[in-house]
Amino acid sequence: MRAPDLHLGRLLAVARKETLQLRRDPRSLAMAFMLPLGLLLFFGYAISWDLRRLPIAVRDEDGTAASRSFVAALEGSDFFQVAERLDSRAEVGRGLQDGTVRAVLLIPRGFSRDLRAGRRAPVQLLLDGSDANTATIMMNYADAIAARWSQQVVLRGQQPPGLVTAESRVWYNPTLASRQMIVPGLIAVIMSIIAAMLTALTIAREWERGTMEQLAATPVHRLEVVFGKLLPYLAIGFFDVFVSVVLGILLFGVPLRGNVLLLAGMTLLFLLGALGLGIFISAALKSQVLATQVALVVTYLPALLLSSFIFDLRAMPAALQAISQIVPARYYIAVTRGIFLKGVGVQVLWVQGLSMIIFAAVGIGAATAAFRKRISA
Amino acid sequence: MSAAVQANELTRRFGGFTAVDHVSFQVETGEIFGFLGPNGAGKTTTLKMLTGLLAPTSGSAVVAGLDIAREARALRSRIGYMSQRFSRYGDLTVGENLELFAGLYGVTGERLTRRRAWALRMAGLEGQEDRLTADLPLGWKQRLALGSAVLHEPKLLFLDEPTSGVDPMARRAFWDLIYELAAAGTTVLVSTHYMEEAEYCHRLLLMHRGRIIAQGPPGELRSLMTEPIYSLRVDHAPRAVESLQHAAGVREAALFGRDLHVVLDPGRDDPDAVVSLLAAAGHPVHGIERVEPSLEDVFVALVRREGGAVPA
Q: How many CB atoms are closer than 10 A to CB A88?
């Protein structure tokens, strides 16, 4: 095949037309500018994996100053709140069962005696395991609080002599605030959806209104159409990411540790692919309603579930891990988190960059191919 | 100068359906060449093949010196095309639509200014540049579509049912524009299902079910019809038609406006027999005259001669 003779003038004519149409279409404008903002604010505030003031019940059979001090330490941590004090062991199961408390702390008789004698003084924490995630987090919290409390007992000159305690330290997100992890990931998820949705309308609309045939009858090349249509949406995508980043920093306090230019470059690659995907869907389906729905399904769920946004990919079955390889949001999430939280550079993110270059090439290639097929069919 | 269009056994099938069936014809430079036929006759499919929008299943055509299959893209810059549905952007203004198509056809700079002004004047849209195209009456939209299809001064212009849905006045105005363009040397290929519009063409191709049933200038086509035709004025033509459907000596009886057109068998040119037949059936005839066959009469007669059903 000969190299197509492409003209910037024709490409710009398409881009200008697309911009003018976009400017007059309140629905598209809302989707382009309001929706990402709304989603960021909504999810940014709504999603939090941090647990606060979990209601627990306490059965203190020891009833000494030491046991009360331990309970106070638990409550003072802000993670737990004593909702109920139980009078007998028989009541232990009830609160867990009806869900009024998430855990029950049992301090056995002899707790302070054992402490004074320098023996291990076990307390029992009964957790509601029906929400395994929360249970694990509670367990870790409780362990940490117990360890700190023991340390304080030691420091106050009481026995027993210092025991070795494991001290874990969290890097990158020292307070393990989930919002810091959510916001960079959220930007990737939102942009996956918005980018494909924006362009999903553009070619289908031309088919529905009968303008595509007219466009096809002009000397415009399909690459000029695809890139001409891409251009305005690329600008919108960049604007959206920019606003999201600024909001992430100012509103949600997410640190931006890495290179802004690298983020911009990676964003460009990602947007090219995501917008191309939308154009492909639009050209293949020729219906605005259908294209929007398909675009939503193929971007939203994978971006949410198979991108490590919520679930750790390494914990998934091999089949899902394999599928996640073709979810572009997965790479972009690694990029946003990497650049925001770790401040890593291209020497770490080149794999993601390469993956997104492939994604962009496939997206735009498929869009162009689908477009060609439909004109001559 | 060779023919503007040379089509050779053009055929297009969609699955098992043959939309265009071995169609051959030639269009001379500067002609207004019409495709006449009912919906589904294959007019649009033929035009789409000639403009390189649709690949023929078999057969070939040379348009403006270019092969439609191998040089489709080069072809598109030499021709203007106006598709069946109104196909300019309703959410762009008149001026923006013109500028878009100028951009797509590579009309820029001083030429753009000149051609844009020309198109506005031609379409009668001066002073309307900033109006949204969607707000224009259909007749104006069609003129805008025509204007934007010829911004690049194509040698050939393809119009697919350009006036469908437009009122008769606007249709006349549109045809004046077509004549203007043809007078300036543009070859025009136009499809229509309006018989009276077909009369404006220099030469016609009558199409039915994907095939050519006749071609030639309108006058010549009319003379193809040798059977005498009578126009009868009756009180209730639709009911009168029924009573003539199987009458002896009557080849064809059809409604023509509020009148009745009756085609007699050539050997039995006896209109009085029809008059008495109708009177006996309770339809007194108020007037009868022999008329020149219209293109519609010719079309119906030719389709019947081919043994096909007459389209509604």
A: 8
Q: Does residue A170 lie within any of the structural domains?
A: no
pLDDT, position A165: 43
pLDDT in tens, B40-89: 899 999 999 999 889 999 999 999 999 998 888 889 999 999 988 777 89
In a domain, A161, yes or no: no
Instruction: Find the mean pLDDT for residues B188-201.
Output: 89
Q: Is A161 on the interface with B (CB under 8 A)?
A: no
| Whether the Cβ atoms of residue A292 and residue A197 lie closer than 8 Å to each other | yes
Question: What is the secondary structure of B94-134 as a DSSP string?
Answer: HHHHHHHHHHHTT--HHHHHHHHHHHHHHTT-TT-TTSBGG
ipTM (interface predicted TM) = 0.81
Structure tokens at A301: 């769920």
User: Do the Cβ atoms of B54 and A376 come within 8 Å?
Assistant: yes
Chain A residues touching B74 at Cβ < 8 A: 219
Burial pattern A333-353, b for ≥16 Cβ within 10 A else e, equals bbbbbbbbbeebeeeebeebb
Q: What span, in angstroms and rounded, lies between the C-alpha atoms of B312 and B303?
A: 12
Range of weakest confidence among A111-115, B26-30, B293-297, B308-312: B308-312
Which residue does chain A place closest to B70, by CA atoms? A1
Give the pLDDT of residue B210.
92
**pLDDT at residue number A164:** 42
Considering the domain architecture, whether residues A323 and A295 belong to the same structural domain is answered as yes
Contact of B108 with chain A, judged by CB distance below 8 Å, is answered with: yes
Q: Which domain holds residue A360?
A: 8-47+177-376
The architecture of the domain spanning B226-292 is 2-Layer Sandwich (3.30)
- Those residues of chain A that have pLDDT short of 50 are 1, 161-167, 376-377
Query: Out of 3.40.50.300, 3.90.226.10, 3.40.50.410, 1.20.1250.20, which CATH number does the structure's domain B5-219 have?
Result: 3.40.50.300
Domain end call among A155, A189, A224: A155
* Contact list, A210 vs chain B (CB under 8 Å): 83-87
Look over chain B and give the mean of its residue pLDDT values, rounded to a whole number.
89
Residues A69, A40, single domain; the answer is: no
**A167-171, B43-47, B112-116, B189-193: the lowest-pLDDT one:** A167-171
How far apart CA B80 and CA B83 sit, in angstroms, is: 10
Q: How far is B212 from chain A (nearest CA, A)?
A: 24
CA A332, A337, A340, A345 torsion: positive or negative?
negative
The confidence score (pLDDT) of residue B93 equals 95
Q: Among B86, B88, B103, whose Cβ lies nearest the Cβ of A12?
A: B103
Nearest CA in chain A to B99: A13
CB atoms inside a 10 Å sphere around CB B137: 11
What is the structure's pLDDT at A169? Answer: 52
In chain B, where do the E strands start and end? 5-14, 17-27, 32-36, 58-63, 66-67, 79-82, 156-160, 187-192, 203-208, 211-216, 229-234, 250-256, 259-264, 285-291
Is A216 in the B-facing interface, judged by CB distances under 8 Å? Answer: yes
Q: Do A124 and A233 have their domain in common?
A: no
For chain A, how many structural domains are there in total? Answer: 2
| B chain contacts of residue A202, beta-carbon cutoff 8 Å | none
User: Which phi and psi (to 5°) does residue A55 adopt?
Assistant: -75, 130
What are the Cα distances from residue A374, in Å, to A115, A132, B174, B236, B246? 80, 50, 31, 51, 49
Q: What is the pLDDT of residue B243?
A: 82
- Same structural domain for residues A264 and A359? yes
Is the CB of B54 less than 8 angstroms away from the CB of A17?
no
Widest distance between CA atoms in chain B: 75
**Residue A185 and residue A262 share a domain:** yes
Please report the pLDDT score of residue A266 as a whole number.
94
Same domain, A128 and A194: no
